Structure formats: C-alpha cells, structure tokens
Amino acid sequence: MKVKRDSRILRALLEPCGPNLQPADSYGPQWVQQEARRLNKAELDRQPSALLSGRRPGVALDDAYLVQWLGAAECVRHGARVIGHKVGLTSEAMQAQFGIDQPDSGLLLDRMVIAEGQDLPVDDLLAPRVEGEIAFRLATDVRGEDVNEQEVRDAVGESLLALEVIDSRYGVAGLTLADSVADNAGCARIVLGRAVPGVPANLADELLTLSVDGAVAASGYGRAVLGDPVRSLLWLVRRLHSFGVGLRAGDVVLAGAVHASLSLRPGQTVVLSSPRFPEAVLHAS
Questions:
Q1: Which of 169, 184, 172, 176 is closest to 53 using CA atoms?
Q2: Residue of higher predicted confidence among 117 and 65
Q3: Entry pTM
C-alpha cells in the first residue's frame, strides 16, 4: 500500500494510546502550517478568512487534508481529543447547496459535543447552520482497502441520531471542496441522541424529521446518504486506508445530512426525530 504523503500526523492523532505529535513544522510545507493557524485564528476571532482556493488556485486535496489535521493537532495540544469522524456532502441536497460533487470528511473533537441539557451559544460561531443525520459508534476496529459493506456493518456497536452544527471559517460564497476539507468539513458542534444497539435494518427507509420550535423545517430518508448511511462508513474506511489508518473501536462517525442545512439562530430549539431512534435536541442561545 502506498500511503499518501504527510499523513503521519493523522496517524499520530488517531493513536489509541494518545497522540505522539511532533512540532507543527515537522509536517508539510510552511504555507500549510500557516493556513491551519489562520483558520484557528478565524474561529477565535469569529472573523472569516479569505478562501484558500482563492489564494492558492488548484490547491491539492492532500494539502487541504493536511491543513485540517494540523488545525486539529493544535487543538489536541491544548487538551482536545479526537473522538471520531464526520462524513460530509454525502447527499444530493448538500452537494447542490454548496456546489460540490463528492463527499469529504473531517475530525470530531470532544470539545465539539454539546451535552444533553446544555445550550449552544450561537455567537461563538460565525454563520452556524444545522443538519440532521444518522451516526454510528464503532464496537471494533475496521480498516482496509478491500473491506466490504457487511464487514463495516458488523463493526458498528450502536446507531443514533445526531444534529451537526456546521460553520465555515471561510464563509460560504465560492466555497470549493478543498476549502471545505481544509475547514474540517465545516464541523463545529454536534449533539448526539441516545443510541440503539447495532444497525437497524433498512436504514435507507428511515425518515428523519427536523423541527425548529415545534414546526417541521426539513426531512429526508436515510437513502439520501449515498443510498444507505452504512455506505458512508464504507467510503470513510476506504478513504482512511489511503492515509494508513482506519476506524477505531469507540469512534463516533456522522454519516452525513439527509437534507440541506438550515440557518441556526439564537433562541431556537431544534429537534431531530425518526421512527426507531430517540430524539436529538439542540437549544441555541
């Protein structure tokens, strides 16, 4: 297997016994390190950065992923922990909304999780949007280029509903796939519902309904995510294989939104429900 260049930082971030991170300047060219710092500063300052694709036309996806990982590594150095992954842009609705034609992925950090009963201060973010999806928690490791859908399904210990709050430190206008990847696939915060064991049958037919302040605002079936949310896991395992890593037992994976994202405003209560899963609830303040 030929592992993509500079992916050793991802392998360090995903080490089961704690990350063994080298200094930031050990990874990739200087502009990549500067871009990761620029994005983290944009988040702290709550001021969007100019698009990476505008400043570096034709930027490679491998370099955009390296920007993402360096940004996560800085958070980990300050006490954060990687708890899993998100897969984004898996539905036609989301791809159409942002003009992007393939999925991407980002890292989930423990600091992104909004606990049950905890409010999300919207002013902490730049331009937050919310979307509903199905998530999985892995019971066993799974990795490899030739892994099949059943093997991925068998590795899942629990399934659950999730609300993902996406945000763009680049703004939205003109966003490309490389911009999305560098910006950690837009993941800012997550709310997880209570889990059910394993993977329920026929997830493609599961109808997810998102309500805002008691009124239905969006809905979509599991099939909107690559035909079946489990295929999102399969895509991710194969993608991670190219970087020399895989999914770990305990990882949470957000499979992708089943509908286009909606703006999130202070004072809103967002509820995601479906026939076979407990609700996921977000209170915005």
A1: 176
A2: 65
A3: 0.92
